[in-house]
Amino acid sequence: MNNAELYIGMRKKMVQQLQQKFQYGREVLEAMNAVPRHLFIEKGMEHLAYEDKPLPIAAGQTISQPSTVALQTHLSGIKKWDKVLEIGTGCGYQTAVLAQLGARVYSIERQRELYLAAQKNLARMGYDKPLLFFGDGYKGLPQFAPFKAIIVTCGAQQLPQELLLQLEIGGRMVIPIGEEKQQQTLAVIERIGENEFNKTTHGKCSFVPMLEGTNK
């Protein structure tokens, strides 16, 4: 068995394990099965790529564990052609999953090292449609708003008001909220009117903190 076949088998097993944990949508599981997570992580850690755990990447950040990526994607309710804003591109793995679903992805990363790495990762795997931006995630991308969904891949101490206003009515933001990693709650904020929002929570989570500004 060559490496490609090995990783296909590992990815299939990962998806089977995800199915046992939660009733994710079929499209989400198909996207998770299609994206080669081992190509987004640091060299020498490929054997851990399909375990359900976060792994370190450049700039002191992490790539979220597969079940977290699947859950955020599922909760967003993203469909093909939906316009999606991702806050925290990281190494580009979540971006690739969204692109695999057929979404029109706009993604912001504040760490220049990760912004450049994600560009290379996505390009070499043929994901050339996502639009990546180096900038402050708290500000979002108002010039491209409104968005059907906003996925935040870092923990915010409080809801970023500028991002809420970039949701279209009927759109959803999936965001971890909390001051400490161990005290974060995964929330879904749905915009139901011009100034009306509905919030639901979906368990505890642990993300790196959401920071303002950029790191060059």
Please tag this protein with its features.
two-stranded antiparallel ribbon, Rossmann fold, 26% strand
Report on the structure:
- This protein has 216 residues and is α/β, with parallel strands linked by helices.
- The protein has a single domain (3-205), classed as 3-Layer(aba) Sandwich (Rossmann fold), CATH 3.40.50.150.
- The protein has helices at residues 3-21, 26-34, 66-76, 93-100, 112-124, 161-164, and strands at residues 55-56, 62-63, 83-87, 104-109, 131-134, 147-152, 167-177, 184-193, 196-205.
- The mean pLDDT is 94.
- Helix 6 (161-164) links the parallel strand 6 and strand 7.
- It is globular, with a radius of gyration of 16 Å.
- 30% of the residues lie in helices and 26% in strands.
- Strands 5-4-3-6-7-8-9 form a seven-stranded mixed beta sheet.
Question: What is the CATH architecture term?
Answer: 3-Layer(aba) Sandwich
Class by alpha and beta content: alpha/beta
At the first level of CATH, the class is Alpha Beta
Number of domains: 1
SSE topology:
Blueprint: H1 3-21, H2 26-34, E1 55-56, E2 62-63, H3 66-76, E3 83-87, H4 93-100, E4 104-109, H5 112-124, E5 131-134, E6 147-152, H6 161-164, E7 167-177, E8 184-193, E9 196-205
Parallel strand pairs: 3-4, 3-6, 4-5, 6-7
Antiparallel strand pairs: 1-2, 7-8, 8-9
Helix pairs in contact: 1-2
